[in-house]
Input
Amino acid sequence: MAGGAAHAQVRGNPAASDYSEGQSTTSRNTGFGIKGGLSYSDLKGSGTSIFTSRDQLKTFHAGVYGQYGFTHFASLQVELLYSRKGFESTNSATNTTQQNRLDYLELPVLFVGNLTETLSLHLGPQVSVLTGGRNGDADLNVSQSGYHRFDFGGVAGAEARLGPARLGVRYDLSFANLYKNEAQLTYNGQPVSALVTDSNIRNSVLQVYLGIGIAH
Output
């Protein structure tokens, strides 16, 4: 009788049953959903000194995810995201500011480790393809822009879950250089005198997101 009552109590608490010994280890670690949120994008690397006046670009990302649980602790999460990155720069001669916006399709492949019933850590690699963007008021011609089309990097973050909802924060750092060596910089689509002589310039993004599980 006592055993039956205890079993009923566990089944009545989805969070507990997801991580309890003897229960399904994938009930909450396996599923898919949608996600999106804010991105705070900037540049890292020694070559960023070429931009004498630079600021973060506040933008967004959105996409879908799928997750497969191996145990009550470990799972693999794969995402497909549309992500805007870039930075803002100021032309000191005209004292005008422009957005340098880069549009990526991204594929993060993340190991997820559950610290508690509701808190998890995410870590893994990411590959990206530059699909377009804008340089001030001008559309970006990717093939002639001086940017590398392909990017790869690492992602690390943490996530809290309550029912089907997920609230997370993560840091996305590119390992590949953003610009080709000797790339010609532009301002509002027009070439300027500066050339990229130190190509150690990489995307750096802090993301805050909300996700909703459609099946979990």
Summary: Residues 1-27 have pLDDT under 50 and may be disordered.
